[in-house]
Amino acid sequence: MPDLIDTTCDLVVFGGTGDLAIRKLLPALLRRETDGLEPEVSRIVAVSRAGLDDAGFRDKVEAELRGAAPEQPAAARRRFLRRLHHRTVDVTDGGAAEWAPLVELLGLPTGRDRVLYLACAPQLFGPIASHAHEHGLLDASTRVVLEKPIGHDLASAQRINDEVGAVVAEEQTFRIDHYLGKETVQNLLVLRFANTLLEPLWNAGGVDHVQISVGETLGVGARAGYYDGSGALRDMVQNHLLQLLCLVAMEPPARLDREAVRDEKLKVLQSLRPLTGGDIARCTVRGQYTAGLVDGAPVPGYADELEAPSRTETFVALKAEVHNWRWAGVPFYLRTGKRLARHASEIVVKFRPVPHSIFPGLGDDVPPNHLVLRLQPDEGVHLHLMTKEPGPGGIRLHPARLDLSFAETFRARLPDAYERLLSDVVRGNPTLFMRRDEIEAAWAWIEPIRTAWDALGDHPRPYPAGTAGPAAATALIERDGRTWYEETLA
Fold it and tell me: Domain residues for 443?
Protein backbone atom coordinates (compact mmCIF):
# COMPACT_ATOMS: atom_id res chain seq x y z
CA MET A 1 0.00 0.00 0.00
CA PRO A 2 1.33 3.50 -0.82
CA ASP A 3 2.60 5.68 1.96
CA LEU A 4 0.22 8.13 3.56
CA ILE A 5 0.57 11.64 2.23
CA ASP A 6 1.01 13.83 5.29
CA THR A 7 1.45 17.11 3.42
CA THR A 8 -1.32 19.64 3.90
CA CYS A 9 -2.21 20.57 0.36
CA ASP A 10 -4.84 22.45 -1.61
CA LEU A 11 -5.56 20.93 -5.02
CA VAL A 12 -7.05 23.51 -7.38
CA VAL A 13 -8.50 22.07 -10.60
CA PHE A 14 -9.04 24.57 -13.41
CA GLY A 15 -11.74 23.02 -15.58
CA GLY A 16 -13.06 21.41 -12.42
CA THR A 17 -16.53 20.65 -13.81
CA GLY A 18 -15.20 19.20 -17.07
CA ASP A 19 -15.10 15.62 -18.28
CA LEU A 20 -11.55 14.85 -17.11
CA ALA A 21 -12.13 16.19 -13.61
CA ILE A 22 -15.47 14.44 -13.13
CA ARG A 23 -14.60 11.08 -14.73
CA LYS A 24 -10.95 10.69 -13.73
CA LEU A 25 -9.52 13.10 -11.17
CA LEU A 26 -12.30 13.18 -8.58
CA PRO A 27 -12.91 9.39 -8.60
CA ALA A 28 -9.14 8.87 -8.19
CA LEU A 29 -9.08 11.23 -5.21
CA LEU A 30 -12.14 9.53 -3.71
CA ARG A 31 -10.39 6.15 -3.87
CA ARG A 32 -7.43 7.60 -2.02
CA GLU A 33 -9.86 8.93 0.59
CA THR A 34 -11.35 5.45 0.95
CA ASP A 35 -7.89 3.94 1.43
CA GLY A 36 -7.09 6.52 4.11
CA LEU A 37 -4.28 8.05 2.07
CA GLU A 38 -5.35 11.71 2.08
CA PRO A 39 -5.34 14.04 5.06
CA GLU A 40 -8.84 15.22 5.93
CA VAL A 41 -7.75 18.86 6.07
CA SER A 42 -6.78 18.94 2.38
CA ARG A 43 -9.14 20.88 0.14
CA ILE A 44 -10.09 20.22 -3.47
CA VAL A 45 -11.15 23.40 -5.23
CA ALA A 46 -12.84 23.26 -8.65
CA VAL A 47 -12.55 26.38 -10.79
CA SER A 48 -14.91 26.84 -13.72
CA ARG A 49 -17.48 29.20 -15.17
CA ALA A 50 -20.37 27.00 -14.01
CA GLY A 51 -21.70 29.49 -11.47
CA LEU A 52 -21.99 26.86 -8.71
CA ASP A 53 -21.63 27.39 -4.98
CA ASP A 54 -19.98 24.74 -2.79
CA ALA A 55 -23.27 22.95 -2.10
CA GLY A 56 -24.28 22.89 -5.74
CA PHE A 57 -20.91 21.51 -6.80
CA ARG A 58 -21.01 18.83 -4.10
CA ASP A 59 -24.47 17.76 -5.25
CA LYS A 60 -23.24 17.52 -8.84
CA VAL A 61 -20.16 15.51 -7.89
CA GLU A 62 -22.10 13.17 -5.60
CA ALA A 63 -24.47 12.30 -8.45
CA GLU A 64 -21.56 11.70 -10.82
CA LEU A 65 -19.56 9.62 -8.33
CA ARG A 66 -22.44 7.23 -7.83
CA GLY A 67 -21.93 6.23 -11.46
CA ALA A 68 -18.15 6.66 -11.76
CA ALA A 69 -17.16 5.03 -8.45
CA PRO A 70 -20.20 3.09 -7.19
CA GLU A 71 -18.07 0.69 -5.16
CA GLN A 72 -16.85 3.37 -2.76
CA PRO A 73 -18.47 3.32 0.70
CA ALA A 74 -20.93 6.05 1.58
CA ALA A 75 -18.95 7.19 4.64
CA ALA A 76 -15.82 7.84 2.56
CA ARG A 77 -17.90 9.64 -0.05
CA ARG A 78 -19.39 11.94 2.60
CA ARG A 79 -15.93 12.75 4.00
CA PHE A 80 -14.68 13.42 0.51
CA LEU A 81 -17.56 15.69 -0.43
CA ARG A 82 -16.92 17.89 2.61
CA ARG A 83 -13.49 18.74 1.19
CA LEU A 84 -14.88 19.97 -2.14
CA HIS A 85 -15.25 23.65 -3.01
CA HIS A 86 -16.12 25.53 -6.17
CA ARG A 87 -15.23 29.01 -7.29
CA THR A 88 -16.50 30.61 -10.49
CA VAL A 89 -13.72 32.37 -12.41
CA ASP A 90 -13.42 33.44 -16.04
CA VAL A 91 -9.73 32.60 -16.36
CA THR A 92 -9.37 34.71 -19.53
CA ASP A 93 -10.12 37.78 -17.37
CA GLY A 94 -7.15 38.66 -15.17
CA GLY A 95 -8.97 41.30 -13.16
CA ALA A 96 -8.69 41.33 -9.37
CA ALA A 97 -12.47 41.23 -8.92
CA GLU A 98 -12.76 38.11 -11.10
CA TRP A 99 -10.09 36.21 -9.15
CA ALA A 100 -10.96 37.55 -5.69
CA PRO A 101 -13.23 34.65 -4.57
CA LEU A 102 -10.50 32.08 -5.38
CA VAL A 103 -7.71 34.18 -3.87
CA GLU A 104 -9.71 34.68 -0.68
CA LEU A 105 -10.43 30.95 -0.31
CA LEU A 106 -6.82 29.92 -0.89
CA GLY A 107 -5.38 32.69 1.27
CA LEU A 108 -6.67 31.24 4.51
CA PRO A 109 -5.40 29.27 6.26
CA THR A 110 -1.82 29.92 5.26
CA GLY A 111 1.05 27.42 5.26
CA ARG A 112 -0.47 24.97 2.78
CA ASP A 113 1.27 23.51 -0.25
CA ARG A 114 -0.68 24.15 -3.42
CA VAL A 115 -1.21 22.21 -6.66
CA LEU A 116 -2.78 23.99 -9.64
CA TYR A 117 -4.09 21.33 -12.03
CA LEU A 118 -4.85 22.76 -15.49
CA ALA A 119 -7.47 20.32 -16.82
CA CYS A 120 -8.55 22.69 -19.57
CA ALA A 121 -7.73 23.70 -23.13
CA PRO A 122 -3.97 24.14 -23.72
CA GLN A 123 -4.42 27.69 -25.03
CA LEU A 124 -5.50 28.63 -21.49
CA PHE A 125 -2.34 27.30 -19.80
CA GLY A 126 -0.35 30.50 -20.32
CA PRO A 127 -3.10 32.94 -19.24
CA ILE A 128 -3.96 30.89 -16.14
CA ALA A 129 -0.32 30.68 -15.06
CA SER A 130 0.16 34.40 -15.67
CA HIS A 131 -2.99 35.45 -13.78
CA ALA A 132 -2.25 33.04 -10.92
CA HIS A 133 1.17 34.66 -10.61
CA GLU A 134 -0.32 38.17 -10.67
CA HIS A 135 -2.70 37.32 -7.84
CA GLY A 136 -0.11 35.66 -5.60
CA LEU A 137 -1.16 32.04 -6.10
CA LEU A 138 2.31 30.87 -7.17
CA ASP A 139 5.16 30.46 -4.70
CA ALA A 140 8.09 28.11 -4.16
CA SER A 141 5.81 25.34 -2.81
CA THR A 142 3.32 25.47 -5.71
CA ARG A 143 3.21 22.75 -8.36
CA VAL A 144 1.49 23.30 -11.71
CA VAL A 145 0.13 20.29 -13.64
CA LEU A 146 -0.37 20.57 -17.40
CA GLU A 147 -2.65 18.04 -19.09
CA LYS A 148 -2.00 16.85 -22.60
CA PRO A 149 -1.94 18.00 -25.28
CA ILE A 150 0.82 20.56 -24.86
CA GLY A 151 0.02 22.38 -28.08
CA HIS A 152 -0.87 20.97 -31.51
CA ASP A 153 2.58 21.27 -33.09
CA LEU A 154 6.14 22.21 -32.17
CA ALA A 155 5.62 25.97 -32.43
CA SER A 156 2.51 25.98 -30.23
CA ALA A 157 4.16 23.65 -27.69
CA GLN A 158 7.15 25.99 -27.46
CA ARG A 159 4.84 28.98 -27.08
CA ILE A 160 2.88 27.33 -24.23
CA ASN A 161 6.09 26.25 -22.52
CA ASP A 162 7.46 29.79 -22.83
CA GLU A 163 4.30 31.35 -21.40
CA VAL A 164 4.08 28.96 -18.45
CA GLY A 165 7.86 28.98 -17.94
CA ALA A 166 7.86 32.77 -17.62
CA VAL A 167 6.19 32.47 -14.19
CA VAL A 168 6.59 28.78 -13.19
CA ALA A 169 10.00 27.13 -12.72
CA GLU A 170 10.61 23.96 -14.71
CA GLU A 171 11.04 21.92 -11.52
CA GLN A 172 7.55 23.05 -10.44
CA THR A 173 5.94 22.10 -13.78
CA PHE A 174 4.41 18.62 -14.10
CA ARG A 175 3.36 17.66 -17.65
CA ILE A 176 1.18 14.62 -17.18
CA ASP A 177 0.77 11.53 -19.36
CA HIS A 178 -1.47 9.09 -17.51
CA TYR A 179 0.07 6.10 -19.34
CA LEU A 180 3.21 6.63 -17.26
CA GLY A 181 1.18 5.98 -14.10
CA LYS A 182 0.08 2.50 -15.17
CA GLU A 183 1.42 -0.43 -13.15
CA THR A 184 2.75 -2.28 -16.18
CA VAL A 185 4.65 0.75 -17.46
CA GLN A 186 6.39 1.21 -14.13
CA ASN A 187 7.00 -2.52 -13.87
CA LEU A 188 8.87 -2.32 -17.16
CA LEU A 189 11.60 -0.38 -15.36
CA VAL A 190 11.68 -2.98 -12.57
CA LEU A 191 11.70 -5.96 -14.94
CA ARG A 192 14.61 -4.50 -16.88
CA PHE A 193 16.74 -3.05 -14.11
CA ALA A 194 16.00 -5.22 -11.05
CA ASN A 195 16.55 -8.59 -12.76
CA THR A 196 19.52 -10.11 -14.55
CA LEU A 197 17.38 -12.29 -16.84
CA LEU A 198 16.24 -9.78 -19.47
CA GLU A 199 18.71 -6.93 -19.67
CA PRO A 200 21.57 -8.93 -21.34
CA LEU A 201 19.13 -9.71 -24.20
CA TRP A 202 17.56 -6.23 -24.32
CA ASN A 203 19.45 -5.02 -27.39
CA ALA A 204 19.91 -5.61 -31.10
CA GLY A 205 21.68 -8.89 -30.41
CA GLY A 206 18.70 -10.41 -28.63
CA VAL A 207 15.64 -8.52 -29.88
CA ASP A 208 14.27 -8.89 -33.40
CA HIS A 209 11.68 -6.11 -33.14
CA VAL A 210 9.26 -4.35 -30.77
CA GLN A 211 5.55 -3.71 -31.21
CA ILE A 212 3.57 -1.10 -29.27
CA SER A 213 -0.19 -1.23 -29.79
CA VAL A 214 -2.98 0.84 -28.24
CA GLY A 215 -6.42 -0.15 -29.52
CA GLU A 216 -9.83 1.20 -28.58
CA THR A 217 -13.29 -0.11 -29.43
CA LEU A 218 -14.87 3.28 -28.79
CA GLY A 219 -15.30 5.93 -31.46
CA VAL A 220 -14.90 9.65 -31.02
CA GLY A 221 -18.52 10.22 -29.97
CA ALA A 222 -19.06 13.62 -28.37
CA ARG A 223 -15.35 14.46 -28.84
CA ALA A 224 -15.69 14.50 -32.63
CA GLY A 225 -15.28 18.28 -32.89
CA TYR A 226 -12.09 18.31 -30.80
CA TYR A 227 -10.71 15.12 -32.31
CA ASP A 228 -11.10 16.33 -35.87
CA GLY A 229 -8.57 19.06 -35.18
CA SER A 230 -6.16 16.58 -33.65
CA GLY A 231 -6.22 13.04 -35.04
CA ALA A 232 -4.52 9.88 -33.84
CA LEU A 233 -0.97 11.05 -34.60
CA ARG A 234 -1.23 14.09 -32.32
CA ASP A 235 -3.67 12.58 -29.82
CA MET A 236 -1.86 9.29 -29.17
CA VAL A 237 1.47 8.83 -30.96
CA GLN A 238 3.14 12.12 -29.98
CA ASN A 239 2.68 11.42 -26.27
CA HIS A 240 1.51 7.97 -25.16
CA LEU A 241 3.20 5.75 -27.75
CA LEU A 242 6.47 7.66 -27.89
CA GLN A 243 6.68 7.66 -24.09
CA LEU A 244 6.23 3.87 -24.07
CA LEU A 245 8.91 3.55 -26.76
CA CYS A 246 11.27 5.62 -24.62
CA LEU A 247 10.83 3.34 -21.59
CA VAL A 248 11.45 0.24 -23.70
CA ALA A 249 14.51 1.66 -25.45
CA MET A 250 16.18 3.83 -22.79
CA GLU A 251 19.59 3.06 -21.32
CA PRO A 252 19.81 2.17 -17.62
CA PRO A 253 19.84 5.42 -15.62
CA ALA A 254 22.60 5.83 -13.08
CA ARG A 255 19.94 6.03 -10.37
CA LEU A 256 16.18 6.35 -10.04
CA ASP A 257 15.85 10.03 -9.29
CA ARG A 258 13.88 13.00 -10.50
CA GLU A 259 15.98 13.71 -13.61
CA ALA A 260 18.00 10.60 -14.48
CA VAL A 261 15.08 8.67 -16.03
CA ARG A 262 13.95 11.72 -18.01
CA ASP A 263 17.50 12.30 -19.25
CA GLU A 264 17.58 8.79 -20.71
CA LYS A 265 14.15 9.12 -22.30
CA LEU A 266 15.24 12.33 -24.00
CA LYS A 267 18.24 10.54 -25.52
CA VAL A 268 15.89 8.01 -27.13
CA LEU A 269 13.76 10.74 -28.69
CA GLN A 270 16.88 12.43 -30.00
CA SER A 271 18.03 9.10 -31.51
CA LEU A 272 14.84 8.46 -33.52
CA ARG A 273 15.59 8.41 -37.23
CA PRO A 274 13.60 11.23 -38.87
CA LEU A 275 10.87 10.13 -41.29
CA THR A 276 10.92 12.33 -44.37
CA GLY A 277 10.30 12.11 -48.11
CA GLY A 278 9.80 8.54 -49.30
CA ASP A 279 9.93 7.25 -45.73
CA ILE A 280 6.42 8.59 -45.17
CA ALA A 281 4.85 6.30 -47.76
CA ARG A 282 6.98 3.28 -46.78
CA CYS A 283 6.88 3.63 -42.99
CA THR A 284 3.51 5.19 -42.10
CA VAL A 285 -0.14 4.27 -42.57
CA ARG A 286 -3.14 6.34 -41.59
CA GLY A 287 -6.72 5.14 -41.57
CA GLN A 288 -10.25 6.22 -40.73
CA TYR A 289 -13.03 3.93 -39.54
CA THR A 290 -16.22 3.46 -41.48
CA ALA A 291 -19.48 1.92 -40.30
CA GLY A 292 -19.18 -1.62 -39.00
CA LEU A 293 -19.82 -3.99 -36.11
CA VAL A 294 -18.19 -3.75 -32.67
CA ASP A 295 -19.05 -6.52 -30.21
CA GLY A 296 -21.86 -7.52 -32.53
CA ALA A 297 -23.53 -4.11 -32.53
CA PRO A 298 -23.64 -1.77 -35.54
CA VAL A 299 -21.74 1.50 -35.11
CA PRO A 300 -21.47 4.53 -37.40
CA GLY A 301 -18.36 5.63 -39.24
CA TYR A 302 -16.21 8.58 -38.22
CA ALA A 303 -17.62 10.88 -40.91
CA ASP A 304 -21.14 9.96 -39.77
CA GLU A 305 -20.32 10.94 -36.19
CA LEU A 306 -18.68 14.14 -37.37
CA GLU A 307 -21.56 14.76 -39.81
CA ALA A 308 -19.04 15.87 -42.44
CA PRO A 309 -16.31 14.36 -44.62
CA SER A 310 -12.84 14.60 -43.11
CA ARG A 311 -9.20 13.75 -43.77
CA THR A 312 -8.47 13.27 -40.05
CA GLU A 313 -6.96 9.90 -39.19
CA THR A 314 -8.44 7.68 -36.48
CA PHE A 315 -5.71 5.03 -36.97
CA VAL A 316 -1.94 5.26 -37.32
CA ALA A 317 0.67 2.58 -37.85
CA LEU A 318 4.31 3.42 -38.34
CA LYS A 319 7.79 1.96 -38.28
CA ALA A 320 10.38 3.78 -36.19
CA GLU A 321 14.09 3.16 -35.70
CA VAL A 322 16.30 4.17 -32.80
CA HIS A 323 19.75 4.94 -34.19
CA ASN A 324 22.13 4.09 -31.37
CA TRP A 325 24.43 1.23 -30.42
CA ARG A 326 21.82 -0.71 -28.47
CA TRP A 327 19.04 -0.69 -31.07
CA ALA A 328 20.69 -0.34 -34.50
CA GLY A 329 18.68 -2.38 -37.00
CA VAL A 330 15.78 -3.14 -34.63
CA PRO A 331 12.45 -1.76 -35.90
CA PHE A 332 9.81 -0.42 -33.51
CA TYR A 333 6.31 -0.84 -34.92
CA LEU A 334 3.69 1.46 -33.42
CA ARG A 335 -0.06 1.39 -34.03
CA THR A 336 -3.08 2.96 -32.45
CA GLY A 337 -6.67 3.31 -33.51
CA LYS A 338 -10.29 3.79 -32.59
CA ARG A 339 -13.16 1.41 -33.31
CA LEU A 340 -10.86 -1.61 -33.47
CA ALA A 341 -11.90 -5.17 -32.70
CA ARG A 342 -10.73 -5.13 -29.10
CA HIS A 343 -9.77 -2.69 -26.36
CA ALA A 344 -6.15 -3.47 -25.51
CA SER A 345 -2.83 -1.73 -24.95
CA GLU A 346 0.37 -3.73 -24.95
CA ILE A 347 4.08 -3.78 -25.62
CA VAL A 348 5.44 -6.88 -27.37
CA VAL A 349 9.18 -7.58 -27.41
CA LYS A 350 9.94 -10.24 -30.02
CA PHE A 351 13.28 -11.93 -29.39
CA ARG A 352 15.48 -13.39 -32.10
CA PRO A 353 14.98 -17.06 -33.05
CA VAL A 354 17.33 -19.76 -31.86
CA PRO A 355 20.39 -19.82 -34.15
CA HIS A 356 20.04 -23.53 -34.91
CA SER A 357 17.25 -26.03 -34.26
CA ILE A 358 18.27 -29.48 -33.02
CA PHE A 359 14.72 -30.85 -33.15
CA PRO A 360 13.98 -33.14 -36.13
CA GLY A 361 11.15 -32.20 -38.43
CA LEU A 362 11.09 -28.56 -37.40
CA GLY A 363 14.00 -27.24 -39.38
CA ASP A 364 14.50 -23.62 -38.42
CA ASP A 365 10.80 -23.06 -37.66
CA VAL A 366 11.02 -22.95 -33.87
CA PRO A 367 8.89 -19.92 -32.94
CA PRO A 368 10.98 -17.29 -31.14
CA ASN A 369 10.25 -16.21 -27.60
CA HIS A 370 8.40 -13.02 -26.93
CA LEU A 371 7.51 -10.90 -23.93
CA VAL A 372 4.11 -9.19 -23.69
CA LEU A 373 3.51 -6.33 -21.28
CA ARG A 374 -0.21 -5.67 -21.11
CA LEU A 375 -1.20 -2.20 -19.96
CA GLN A 376 -4.95 -2.71 -20.27
CA PRO A 377 -7.15 -4.50 -19.65
CA ASP A 378 -5.95 -7.01 -17.00
CA GLU A 379 -2.51 -5.50 -16.44
CA GLY A 380 0.25 -8.07 -16.41
CA VAL A 381 3.33 -9.60 -18.03
CA HIS A 382 3.42 -12.74 -20.19
CA LEU A 383 6.57 -14.54 -21.33
CA HIS A 384 6.02 -16.94 -24.24
CA LEU A 385 8.42 -19.91 -24.28
CA MET A 386 8.74 -23.21 -26.11
CA THR A 387 8.19 -26.36 -24.03
CA LYS A 388 7.87 -30.10 -24.62
CA GLU A 389 4.36 -31.42 -25.01
CA PRO A 390 3.83 -34.13 -22.33
CA GLY A 391 3.69 -37.75 -23.41
CA PRO A 392 5.77 -40.52 -24.98
CA GLY A 393 6.66 -40.93 -28.62
CA GLY A 394 9.34 -38.35 -29.13
CA ILE A 395 9.73 -34.65 -28.50
CA ARG A 396 6.90 -32.47 -29.68
CA LEU A 397 7.36 -28.75 -29.06
CA HIS A 398 4.51 -26.69 -27.75
CA PRO A 399 4.38 -22.93 -27.04
CA ALA A 400 3.47 -22.08 -23.45
CA ARG A 401 2.93 -18.84 -21.58
CA LEU A 402 4.25 -17.84 -18.18
CA ASP A 403 1.73 -15.39 -16.72
CA LEU A 404 2.13 -12.63 -14.19
CA SER A 405 -1.25 -11.07 -13.54
CA PHE A 406 -0.85 -8.18 -11.13
CA ALA A 407 -4.39 -8.52 -9.77
CA GLU A 408 -4.03 -12.27 -9.09
CA THR A 409 -0.43 -12.17 -7.85
CA PHE A 410 -0.80 -9.31 -5.38
CA ARG A 411 -4.48 -9.80 -4.46
CA ALA A 412 -4.95 -6.07 -4.12
CA ARG A 413 -6.76 -3.32 -5.93
CA LEU A 414 -4.49 -1.79 -8.56
CA PRO A 415 -4.43 1.98 -8.15
CA ASP A 416 -5.66 4.02 -11.07
CA ALA A 417 -2.91 5.84 -12.97
CA TYR A 418 -4.27 9.20 -11.86
CA GLU A 419 -4.15 8.11 -8.21
CA ARG A 420 -0.43 7.45 -8.47
CA LEU A 421 0.38 10.55 -10.48
CA LEU A 422 -1.62 12.90 -8.25
CA SER A 423 0.26 11.51 -5.26
CA ASP A 424 3.58 12.12 -7.00
CA VAL A 425 2.58 15.72 -7.72
CA VAL A 426 1.73 16.33 -4.06
CA ARG A 427 5.07 14.79 -3.06
CA GLY A 428 6.89 16.87 -5.66
CA ASN A 429 8.26 13.81 -7.50
CA PRO A 430 8.50 14.53 -11.28
CA THR A 431 10.04 11.20 -12.39
CA LEU A 432 6.90 9.98 -14.19
CA PHE A 433 6.15 13.35 -15.79
CA MET A 434 7.41 14.78 -19.07
CA ARG A 435 10.02 17.50 -19.17
CA ARG A 436 9.88 20.41 -21.60
CA ASP A 437 12.69 19.09 -23.78
CA GLU A 438 10.95 15.71 -24.06
CA ILE A 439 7.71 17.29 -25.25
CA GLU A 440 9.47 19.40 -27.84
CA ALA A 441 11.68 16.54 -29.08
CA ALA A 442 8.56 14.39 -29.60
CA TRP A 443 6.83 17.16 -31.55
CA ALA A 444 9.97 17.70 -33.65
CA TRP A 445 9.90 14.03 -34.71
CA ILE A 446 6.15 13.94 -35.37
CA GLU A 447 5.87 17.21 -37.28
CA PRO A 448 7.47 16.11 -40.60
CA ILE A 449 5.01 13.19 -40.75
CA ARG A 450 2.04 15.49 -40.25
CA THR A 451 3.41 17.98 -42.78
CA ALA A 452 3.94 15.27 -45.41
CA TRP A 453 0.43 13.90 -44.93
CA ASP A 454 -1.05 17.37 -45.32
CA ALA A 455 0.98 17.94 -48.47
CA LEU A 456 -0.20 14.68 -50.03
CA GLY A 457 -3.82 15.71 -49.50
CA ASP A 458 -5.17 12.19 -49.86
CA HIS A 459 -7.76 10.60 -47.60
CA PRO A 460 -6.84 8.16 -44.83
CA ARG A 461 -7.38 4.53 -45.78
CA PRO A 462 -10.84 3.31 -44.73
CA TYR A 463 -11.30 0.37 -42.39
CA PRO A 464 -14.58 -1.09 -41.11
CA ALA A 465 -15.24 -0.55 -37.41
CA GLY A 466 -14.61 -3.75 -35.47
CA THR A 467 -11.55 -4.82 -37.47
CA ALA A 468 -7.79 -4.55 -36.85
CA GLY A 469 -7.40 -1.44 -39.02
CA PRO A 470 -6.59 -0.89 -42.70
CA ALA A 471 -4.96 -3.66 -44.71
CA ALA A 472 -2.02 -1.35 -45.40
CA ALA A 473 -1.04 -1.61 -41.72
CA THR A 474 -0.70 -5.36 -42.13
CA ALA A 475 1.37 -4.85 -45.27
CA LEU A 476 3.62 -2.38 -43.42
CA ILE A 477 4.96 -5.05 -41.09
CA GLU A 478 4.64 -8.05 -43.43
CA ARG A 479 6.97 -6.40 -45.95
CA ASP A 480 9.67 -6.98 -43.33
CA GLY A 481 8.70 -10.64 -42.90
CA ARG A 482 6.95 -10.03 -39.57
CA THR A 483 3.34 -10.03 -38.35
CA TRP A 484 1.39 -8.08 -35.78
CA TYR A 485 0.87 -9.81 -32.46
CA GLU A 486 -2.87 -10.45 -32.40
CA GLU A 487 -3.67 -12.25 -29.16
CA THR A 488 -5.66 -9.31 -27.82
CA LEU A 489 -5.87 -7.04 -30.87
CA ALA A 490 -7.66 -9.37 -33.27
Answer: 180-414+435-478
